[in-house]
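Reopening this ticket.

The earlier resolution said the output was attached, but the attachment link was broken on my side. Pasting everything inline this time so it's all in one place.
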Amino acid sequence: MKLILSTVLLLFTHTVYGSEYDRCDYEAIEPSLYQAEELEILASCVRNDQGVLTINPIHLERMAFNSWDIAKFTAYRRTYLVNRNGRIVLPVKREGYTDYFQEGLSRTDVDGKIGYFNQDLEIVIEPQYDWGMHFVDGKALVCIGCERIPDECSINYFISGGKWGYINKQGIEVVPIIYDQHQLQP
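Inline output:
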């Protein structure tokens, strides 16, 4: 009976979600929920509708959220953050880890452009910079026209060239983005 019920559940889940949702991985509240008969449900986790990601509500309920109500999940070979309302953002990934919050903001990387989001996962500074550093004392060093050059010895990269300046937490230039990298040090 349990086998029949599991099979019916899998078929129903695949019918409802299978064609719309793709696989994702995340830390669950109760990892014991993921027995072999539920692997198909894991495959019905995230949907990509023309670049807009949506988490299947079943999985959103099962995710382990931190004290800021943010959970991580991996899909399409990238690590994303999601809040309990299902808002998703792609953080910058450096040294194999997702970016962290500093002064209430973290960085996002959208199509190779850096922007900033808050702990509610709201974009507060649109992705428009070729690189940006963390905020320190209310300002962040950003560049336009710089390049990310892969480091052959690690998974990181170097930032080279372009014009540099500082922005505040509202995205307003407080030091114009007109300087060479060596003229402005973080």
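Reporter confirms the inline version is readable. The chain has two domains: 1-89, 94-186. The chain has a mean pLDDT of 81.
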